[in-house]
Amino acid sequence: MTRLNLLMLAALTVLSSNRAMGDEAKPTIKLPAFEPYAVDGAAMWEQFTDSSASRWRRSQAEKKGEEGLRYDGEWEVEELTKLAGIEGDKALVVKSEARHHAISAKLDKTFDPATDGMVFQYEVKLQESLGCGGAYAKLLTTPFAGEFSDATPYTIMFGPDKCGESKIHLIFRHKNPITGEYTEHHLDQPPMPPVDHLSHLYTLVIHPNNTFNMLVDNVEKRTGSLLADFVPPVNPPKEIVDENDKKPEDWVDDAEIPDPKARKPEDWDEDAPLLIPDEEAEKPKGWLEDEPLMVPAPDAEKPADWDDEEDGDWSPPLVPNPKCEDAPGCGPWERPMKRNPEFKGQWSAPLIENPLYKGQWAPRNIPNPAFFEDLELYKLNKIDAVGFELADVASQIAKDVWAPKLASENEVEVATRPKPPPAPKPQMPPVLDMFKARFVEVIDSIHAFYEEFTNEGIISALRNERHGAFGILMLAAGLSWMMWNIVLVFGFVSRIWRETTPRAPGAGAAAAGSGDAAEGSSTGRAAAAATTATKRSAKKSE
């Protein structure tokens, strides 16, 4: 069964300031256009269209107890300027910086939470970083008339606040049915709100079983009981301490007393000292009994401006006696003290159970004359300002209105996010840097040497202090390279000449016969292998 049990301000309460927004990068993505969303049966459904400004009344009342301090902050219904996710989407925007703001709008009809509980839901968007301020809403108690201020009675206060400790307030006012006085009851351990520049949805649901749910962005952040999770508790204790109750004069609350039959032993010496000299102790060997611990400084001199008549007789400052540094001690020796085995201290009778003991006295409890038990706390005071809707409708609104807006804002935030600086070029390790510097020096020296060699001649180039030594090394390296090439060419020519010169007869046989001695040549190794094979064959035939 569908019931009208949703109190709702499903709108944007946007915190901003009158500061310039700066040259914020415009998003390159195409934003979806604003489309009005219809909600049937709501006491108040607000999307801040062009006709909304007339229903909201800006307060200019004076703050309670602060003479001359008024609610003079300005409000405007205008399009968003920071991370707008919907083209043409408007909000109720705070326009004044560091001032007190208050604004209200009456419901189309009074809402009574006693019917089926309630749901209260609205959006908050921080267009500027919030230093100290609130973005909470108050559901104002019936009857509401006049200007809204901190003195206006409210039924529920709900929403984010950042001033010192950041928290999501949940406070309800309850009327004592006996005294008629109202008390504010604060949620114990409230959750923390988000603090970015995106639109966030705050939802409060109060059920007819006295439980509540607090959601942020359609995610549950806190749940609990109106009876158990608020400070101070709504229902007072059934009994209280009787302040007029007095302890009887004959009341005995000493559990133990000294034993009246106990007597001090005859050998008990109360005058025996706790410590006595150790008669077994002996003076350590090497103890310098005649040497003082401090002696006059030997190198001290009387100051030149010292006047004995005005300053008195001068004496050098004292310093530790150097003779005592290696000795076990200096000065008169005294026996060390030890605990006296005969010490017993003051005698007192041992304690025994008190036969007259009645226990620890405490004033009695009496019925609390102010006791009441309200088990239907969800039946809060009727509300005149802001509106209501169905609980399932609240979830649908979050899905149809808030969720697409947040998705679009996230795209804008990504599109306008400052591009990260390019990654720095990888730097060479110190060793590679050193080799690079040396290589550059070598190239520079070669160029300089060549320049002077071309213009001034080889002698001048070699004598130059800057690159002469390097030129000599270069010349020596060049000559060495040339000599090495001459040696290689000479060896190559010699080998060709040997291979092309005809040999004398019998040279091959001699080479074959000397296989073992000629293992360094391929011909000698082949001959040796052939001889070995011949010997093995002959042995097999035998």
UniProtKB/TrEMBL annotation:
<keyword id="KW-0472">Membrane</keyword>
<dbReference type="InterPro" id="IPR001580">
    <property type="entry name" value="Calret/calnex"/>
</dbReference>
<feature type="compositionally biased region" description="Acidic residues">
    <location>
        <begin position="267"/>
        <end position="281"/>
    </location>
</feature>
<dbReference type="InterPro" id="IPR013320">
    <property type="entry name" value="ConA-like_dom_sf"/>
</dbReference>
<dbReference type="Pfam" id="PF00262">
    <property type="entry name" value="Calreticulin"/>
</dbReference>
<dbReference type="InterPro" id="IPR009033">
    <property type="entry name" value="Calreticulin/calnexin_P_dom_sf"/>
</dbReference>
<keyword id="KW-1133">Transmembrane helix</keyword>
<keyword id="KW-0812">Transmembrane</keyword>
<dbReference type="GO" id="GO:0005789">
    <property type="term" value="C:endoplasmic reticulum membrane"/>
</dbReference>
<feature type="signal peptide">
    <location>
        <begin position="1"/>
        <end position="22"/>
    </location>
</feature>
<dbReference type="GO" id="GO:0051082">
    <property type="term" value="F:unfolded protein binding"/>
</dbReference>
<keyword id="KW-0143">Chaperone</keyword>
<feature type="region of interest" description="Disordered">
    <location>
        <begin position="236"/>
        <end position="325"/>
    </location>
</feature>
<feature type="transmembrane region" description="Helical">
    <location>
        <begin position="469"/>
        <end position="493"/>
    </location>
</feature>
<comment type="similarity">
    <text>Belongs to the calreticulin family.</text>
</comment>
<feature type="compositionally biased region" description="Basic and acidic residues">
    <location>
        <begin position="239"/>
        <end position="250"/>
    </location>
</feature>
<feature type="compositionally biased region" description="Low complexity">
    <location>
        <begin position="504"/>
        <end position="535"/>
    </location>
</feature>
<feature type="disulfide bond">
    <location>
        <begin position="132"/>
        <end position="163"/>
    </location>
</feature>
<keyword id="KW-0256">Endoplasmic reticulum</keyword>
<dbReference type="InterPro" id="IPR018124">
    <property type="entry name" value="Calret/calnex_CS"/>
</dbReference>
<keyword id="KW-1015">Disulfide bond</keyword>
<dbReference type="GO" id="GO:0005509">
    <property type="term" value="F:calcium ion binding"/>
</dbReference>
<dbReference type="GO" id="GO:0036503">
    <property type="term" value="P:ERAD pathway"/>
</dbReference>
<feature type="region of interest" description="Disordered">
    <location>
        <begin position="503"/>
        <end position="542"/>
    </location>
</feature>
<protein>
    <submittedName>
        <fullName>Calreticulin-domain-containing protein</fullName>
    </submittedName>
</protein>
<keyword id="KW-0732">Signal</keyword>
<dbReference type="GO" id="GO:0006457">
    <property type="term" value="P:protein folding"/>
</dbReference>
